[in-house]
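user: can you give me the structure for this one chain? tokens are fine.
assistant: on it. calling the predictor now.
[tool input]
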Amino acid sequence: MQSPSSGVRVLFLSSLLVALTTRVALANPLDVQVGYLQWVPDQGPVLSNVIPEPKDAGLRGAELAIEDNSTTGKFLGQTYSLQSEVADSEEATVAAFEAMRQNGLELFIVNAPASTLKALTEKAGDNTVIFNVGAKDDALRTGQCYVNLLHTIPSYAMLTDALGQWLHQRRWNQVFLITGPTEADQGWAAAFRRTAKRFGLEIVQDKPWVFDADLRRTASRELPLFTQASDYDAVVVADVRGDFGEYVPFNTWLPRPVVGTQGMSPVTWHRVVESWGAAQLQNRFRELAGRDMSSEDYAAWAAIRSIGTAVTDLSSVDPNEIRSFLFSDKFQLAAFKGRKLTFRDWNGQLRQPIPLVHPRGLVARAPFEGFLHPDSQMDTLGFDRPESQCRING
């Protein structure tokens, strides 16, 4: 004989199923098409044994987000699809962009250099929204801003400000800066110099790396001499692609920690981030891609999840409506970083905490207590509104 409680439970579940079925039936079916474009120029051979970035970094994160959006979207009559193109040149990227737009796509995820982003945004229509998931250039957030361009990858300034807050908090205020020769190295180092002024750090030595020797045999001889100075609290390395930075730890003139692009690093995402449900995201990504989630993967995932959040709330796929929603007080992205993420309305940057990690562990997460802001503590990372010329949302 069925108990009264079990009968109530069956009735409740039946009612819930009817309600969900009715909601799907009443909802207008929505077909959400997203384009993914990638072009990462060949940087040439590196001079260390650094593990190269996966060639599908970004794309696999986008695919996972499409799966996540589809999981909830199927109950609301929403269908998500991804059209992707991994190009071999800027010209091919622009051509793929134009072809996708001719097929009706207006929502794009782009992992490409800043110059390519500019070319795409200048060809985009008023009803196109582009998410930058690869270019960290500060200029895209301070002066070269586009109304239809949003950024889910942190800028160099956000990354270096996270490091600067940590150094200041530890009172490691005197640093030795080594900068590599590439454009990315120069961009990272310029951001750190600004960070040093912002948080009261003193760069006691600011030296460019001008050698092209194979450090696998000579690091223990060359690096101690190169890092000679009377005193410093830490060595800061700006070597984005890993030409020499991997050999700096344990080879400095003074026994000091190494931070920056090597040693302990500020990153968008890393496999050691596991709190706030992140382990579940990491596991689902490994199951999909067979590797760990990269920063570009996370940025692409966050971009498409932002689109899905907007579509669910709006019941619309209109790009301009989605863009307006993303800048509104209604938008918050749950993104496994311990805080709800929002977009800065002056330059389109996604506010987000920055993990500070070494290869096998999480050290800390910025922003830190004590660094105050009148509106959002996360705006202590990167260029704040008064520091940027951009006003893309009014």
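assistant: here you go. The first strand starts at residue 30 and ends at 38. Residues 10-154+270-352 form a domain with the Rossmann fold fold (CATH 3.40.50.2300).
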